[in-house]
Specification:
Number of domains: 2
Number of strands: 7
CATH architecture of the largest domain: 2-Layer Sandwich
Oligomer: single chain
CATH topology of the largest domain: Heat Shock Protein 90
Number of helices: 11
CATH class of the largest domain: Alpha Beta
């Protein structure tokens, strides 16, 4: 039937078959309880003869509900079609009922009589046909509405995911020019001060670092091992500039190295520690970067003992960028906290879900 899929035909046929089987079984059981003899097979055959003819009429109702919906804008135009379809489906159902009854009895009284009987019984059972028709239309419209809403929900979820990913890519991209400017400024200072060999070494580190940066920021998450490798390259650049005034300690357990983190998560925090915490101090200091897994939580820590006061405790671009990316990726399942260290320095702690790639 046009507008009705094979799956719908199968479902409708299965529905009326089950209704017929249950009705026949109930009739046979009721007869047995009353002391009357009605074989189960005979009761099932009678019931199926009554209910299986409802299949064509139901399919008509489903097709009309699909092609002539009763939505807010179209119900006035299509209502009359459905009102006319009720007696038509009643006639169709009883046409098959009478035809099946005659076939089982081995009788045929002519097409005119068949049409007359179908019309008579269709009129007598019009209210039942109307209930069946309304139920089929309501079920069809309900399923269509559910599918439409589900489709819109999936589309909205897809658009939201695309928006979040685009936002994260923008945040990732913001770090690169900021970091590049600082590094090139450092190289320029080295050249102007006559330390060309140190400047050349920094360029080598910068090239290696940016290869990692470009590869990582195209992704939403990277293994922590890659992030720590970038931090190591960055610290090598800063150590070439400040010498022994900048020291570093990077430690992570094996489980933490395999966990996924946003790209360039730690580098802005380490940069703050060097720029605001160590470089202003004549004695310099040490940057500790530690990572460990506890249960299902990845704990990251960036700490320095400089006297300059780490900018991580403020609301600078680097720290606000990190906060936004963490919130966009993990929602309430993450945290970032900063605190001053007794004796000088700043302690930054991050907690994330411990997920492995």
């Amino acid at each position: 039937m046009t507008g009705v899929s094979a799956r719908v035909v199968a479902v409708v046929a299965a529905f009326w078959t089950v209704v017929g089987l249950l009705s026949g079984a109930q009739t046979s059981l009721a007869a047995a309880l009353q002391g009357k003899a009605q074989p189960l097979g005979s009761a099932l055959a009678d019931a199926l003869a009554q209910f299986l003819p409802c299949i064509p009429a139901t399919l008509v109702a489903v097709a009309l509900a699909s092609r002539a919906p009763l939505g807010r804008l179209a119900w006035r135009r299509n209502l009359w079609l459905h009102l006319a379809a009720v007696p038509a489906t009643a006639f169709l159902t009883n046409f098959f009922v009478v035809g099946v009854y005659w076939a089982r009895a081995g009788e045929f009284h002519g097409l005119g009589t068949l049409l007359q009987q179908a019309g008579l019984w269709g009129f007598v059972r019009l209210q039942v046909a109307a209930l069946f028709y309304a139920g089929a239309v309501a079920a069809t419209l309900g399923i269509q509405s559910f599918r439409h809403l589900r489709s819109r929900e999936l589309e909205l979820a897809r658009l939201e995911t695309q928006f979040v990913q685009a936002r994260l890519q923008v945040l990732n991209a913001q770090i690169r020019p900021h970091f590049l400017f600082n590094t090139l400024h450092t190289i320029g200072q080295l050249w102007r001060s006559g330390r060309s060999e140190d400047a050349d070494a920094m360029l080598d580190h910068l090239g290696a670092l940016f290869q990692k940066v470009i590869a990582s920021t195209a992704r939403t998450e990277v293994p922590l091992s890659e992030e720590l490798a970038m931090v190591g390259d960055y610290l090598a650049i800063e150590q070439a500039r400040f010498g022994e005034r900048v020291r570093s300690r990077l430690t992570a357990d094996d489980r933490a190295l395999a966990c996924l983190v946003p790209p360039l998560l730690l580098q802005p925090l380490v940069e703050n520690a060097v720029k605001h915490g160590l470089s202003p101090s004549a004695r310099g200091g040490t940057v500790w970067v530690e990572a460990r897994v506890e249960g299902d939580v990845l704990r990251l820590q960036v700490r320095d003992d400089g006297a300059g006061g780490n900018g991580s405790s403020g609301s600078g671009t680097g720290l606000s960028n990190v906060r936004e990316r963490l919130a966009g990726l993990y929602g309430d399942r993450q945290s970032l906290a900063t605190a001053p260290v007794e004796g000088g320095g700043t302690d930054v702690r991050i907690e994330l879900p411990a997920r492995r790639g």
